[in-house]
Amino acid sequence: MKNAQCKKCLNKFNHKDIYTIQQFQYRKEPTYQWSVNYFEELGISEWDSFCETCMSYYSKESEKEWKSKI
Ligand SMILES: [Zn+2]
Which of 13, 15, 26, 42 is the most buried (most CB within 10 A)? Predict the structure, then answer.
């Protein structure tokens, strides 16, 4: 059952394929706290669901932003 929805592209997908920004806890840099603040500014919370494509997009975007600030 495709009953989860990506907050960005609005595509429907399976619950087991949900990605959230909580996965960035495992990224070395930027720090997780930095990521949380970055996404908060975009109106994204730790509980929002995303598909894999959009999560990888945000992963790259946030990394770019992080690098431009240091
Ligand atoms: Zn998406």
Answer: 13
Instruction: Write 10-16 long-range contacts (CB < 8 A, 24+).
Output: 11/51, 13/51
Each residue's pLDDT tens digit, 58-70: 999 999 999 998 6
Report the C-alpha gap between 19 and 15 in whole angstroms. 9
Map residue 18 onto helix, strand or coil: coil
Please provide the distance, in angstroms rounded to a whole number, between the alpha carbons at the two ends of the chain: 43
pLDDT tens-digit map of 27-41: 999 999 999 999 999
Ligand 1 centroid, distance to 55 Cα (angstroms):
7
Tokens 């930027």 belong to 30
- Residue 19: strand pairing partners: 50
User: Ligand 1 mean position to 59 CA, how many Å?
Assistant: 13
